[in-house]
Structures
1.
Amino acid sequence: MSFFGRVGLGRNQSADNAKERLKLVLIHDRAGLSPGKLEALKDDLIKVIEKHIDINTRDVEITLTRDRDQQRLVADIPLLPSKGRR
Amino acid sequence: MSAQVITITSGKGGVGKTTATANLAVALAQMNKKVVSIDGDIGLRNLDVVMGLENRIVYDLVDVVEGRCKLRQAMIRDKRFPELFLIPAAQTRDKTAVSPKDMVRLCDELRPEFDWILIDSPAGIERGFRNAIAPADMILVVTNPEVSAVRDADRIIGLIEADQKGPGKLVINRVKPAMVKRGDMLSTEDIVDVLAIDLIGIVPEDETVLIASNQGRAAVLDNRSKAGKAFTNIALRLNGEEVPFVELDDRDGFFDRILKLGRAGGDS
């Protein structure tokens, strides 16, 4: 680290890091859904959706988000090109 | 007269609940209020030593609840303030000896005679915590600028809201302004932003708190104590006074500066 970083002219990142980690852990705590449970939910969701439509299972993303007072479960599920289409 | 019941809680242990309770009790007594503080930590009695009243205990909270003594007999009068009392926790008995209903009944009996009833909650979210919040009119949630402490504060806020006791007011304890300034400690703004409840006090890390508690006296009695001043400000806010939040002094101590210079000259 540079001299200026050490004497405090540069900004350390640890408080920002703390805030980001805190926000993430609270999103899971508040929803009562641990990252492990979220992963299990994702697997179940993939199984159900796959019965009906071809999806790119590797790129499925399920995330918990929070805006103001509303918690949201967001699923981003990319589809595979449809076989029936020509 | 009907007292307001204030419960001081945190979820995580060691963030300064007992220190806050003792200091707020003394600060309110200094303002000529009639105050009783109750140690809610059954099995781990501590408020007595922080207030310097440990040698006077005869009866405790469980003795009152189980009818072995009158309420008055378990109330220990402070050495300096004749209108300040402590009801100590039992040390050896079963934690389930006291119920939330018992606490409500006890506080109802005390209310007519006091201005303020302060309850020092135990850490955790079990029975002792439930007992402590049952009679509360207002809950102060104490936290430190640490991820673990803020996380637990969030849990507590959720629980007191579910119990219709919310939202509570936040006390951020043991803040080191110099660390906040250089980006190595969560700031007051960060914590308030994440927890989204009203702030009632910011207390700086301060050696005078330990020095005072070594002697069984509250830091608020020491005019030079910055933490003591912060607790007095919280007491004023409880009394409905508008006290602005002042910027904490971010100057490092003399030795911190020497250390920093030493490190700067190192392997950079």
Note: The longest strand of chain B covers residues 169-175.
2.
Amino acid sequence: MSKEKKESVIESSIKRKYKLQAKDVKVWYGDFMAIKGISMDIKPNKVTAFIGPSGCGKSTFLRLFNRMNDYVDGFKMDGKINIDGSNINAKDINVELLRKQVGMVFQKPNPFPKSIFENVAYGLKIQGLKDKKFLEERVESSLKQVALWDEVKNDLNKSALALSGGQQQRLCIARTLAVEPSIILMDEPTSALDPISTAKIEELIYKLKDKYTIVIVTHNMQQASRISDNTAFFYLGELIEYDKTNKIFTNPEKQQTENYITGRFG
Amino acid sequence: MNNIRKNRLKDQAFKVWGIFCTLLGLVLLAVFIGNILVDGIMRIDWEFVMNLPSRKPEKAGIYTALIGSIWVLLLTTLIALPIGIAAAIYLEEYSKKNKLATILEVNISNLAGVPSIIYGLLGLEVFVRILEMGASVLAGSFTLALLILPIVIVSTREALKAVPKSIRDASFAMGASKWQTVYHQLLPASFGGILTGIILALSRAVGETAPLIVIGALAYVPFAPSSPMDEFSVLPIQIFNWITRPQHGFVENAAAAIIILLLITFVMNGIAVYFRNKWQKKFK
Amino acid sequence: MLNLEDHREILNQSGLEMFQLVRKQFIKSKEAFLNHDSDLAEEVLHTENRVNGMDLKLDRECERFIALHNPVASDLRFVLALRKINFDLERIGDHAYGISSYIVEVDTPVNKEVLEKLDFEEMYKAALSMLDDIRDAYKSGNAKKARKVFKKDKILNKINLKSFGVISEEVQKDPKLIDQYLLLFSVIKKIERVGDLITNIGEEIIFYLEAEVLKHRKKKGPSKSSK
């Protein structure tokens, strides 16, 4: 096999092994360099946690994977972001299609001011899927996945804003699941919730791992250690350490990582 | 202790002053309305509403002016609404937020404060003469539409701004295009605010006199307009006309017409307040 | 609410206190045995209460530390190691106690010649130096020092193995003294056990410092190039 062919075979098998990849990614907001050259490979069907002090770039980095940074004034980026081996910033990429494959859950639950049903069906409706029966089935299965179905099944037309915070967040997750993405990005999904709702959602994340690849940004060290398989520690726009969660929390390689997770700084 | 006493006195003093100012406005309004009612309420009957204008005060009615006002109101709405809302959506959601956008925003707000007679002059030249619409309902409507356009744009933008960013984020993150987000999320969510803005703009338009006089809305129109190209009159002009007549009967007529005009205005404002309250509840 | 670093320092000091306490017990028991000093032996017996009290206190403190601070990484390894170290130190104290209680019960001192044949003093000295090494390793966080004890433990094992033959010989020479010799035999066993306990502590210290688990593995002494 020629050298080029061999390299491409190796590269493509690496690409298939990794669901999400970043290659020497740099990000600027105007003159400010938010990400200073990060490379990272994320395996499928795992939960990867991003930890680090405020302002270290973890949310920015997360949002690269569904191109939500495109809406920020002055955003500029260098390097490659691949999903399933394809560069998502290529000219011919349909951003809306990308976002159906990569779902996102935000810090503060943000259901639409519509009914519960309308919320979950929204992603399907904007794709043009109108068949009533299909929508009903999809809504039901999504709400079941987030363990919300029993609580709301008799009241699907109730306004989503009437639900409690924890329920709203689960609704937002259901809404994301309804379009059947393969990747779910979560930006501090439980930081606005009480401990019991947090526990329910962590349980949910743990269950979802089987079908989805999940990346979660969190400020809560215990949460990262509880639910993630791998943890990445960010500091001032750099990736300091990225390893199995177990290793990071029992014996991290870098002193900075140790200082952060033991609470010595940050 | 003296300081505390002083502050308490200041507090009381302001309270008294505030009550006085509020009452002053209310009392004056009450006096005015009372006066008008006394003068005109007896005059209002079905004939008054249905009669055409006449030289004799007891035979004169507001029919043509009323129909003219309704025509103008409807056409103004049809013209100003789509343009105003579309412009607001573009400015708020699509255009880049650069220096040009800021200049544009300031200037649109300024346009809302331009004296309405200027709009009349503009309407006269552009719509009546250049576009040869004549002194028609259409010309009047276009003129008024221009006048209320800044109000529609600004209030629509405010209503859109009031929709939290998190809704947009959620919609985009689900793979919706900008237009889908506007159509499915932003417009429904800001509907109440937009509606309020429109009604307030229209309730201003219904009372405009100067610009319509300039473009040639006649005071003595013996027929109600039956097409947009017809000549017309409106209630405020009719009122103005009657006030300038010497016969005492016309004073009564004017008062009666004022009552009807006030009624229309109050009802429109009431609807606006109702919708504003309903809309605010949505985000609780 | 105690800050994590301060709390850890308190634990550290308590651990050191336990080391000092047990070391003193061990030295006293040695002196008492060699000089057949029953008063000194009584001292050891009385101090056992303090050792037990310290053991309980340290255990409680470790539990509190874990509950309040949710430690991770080196903090976690430290407190896990400390609990085990505490346990082992308490056992060493037990052995010192055991040696002293025999002195109290038996009247006659042991024959000096037999002690020499057994290399008894050498064994005790080695054990004591291991104890010092491990205390220093704990105090200064020095894994190299901790590794030293693995080699020294071999001395104890050697002497222990030899002791069986020597004692059985002595018993055959003078069967009337069998009580004494049985006592001697069990003391030697206790010292050998102390050596084992010290190597356990060494493993724990290395686990804490280097996250390396040496349990159930063949242990090498410090290499020339180790840190």
Note: The mean pLDDT of chain A is 91.
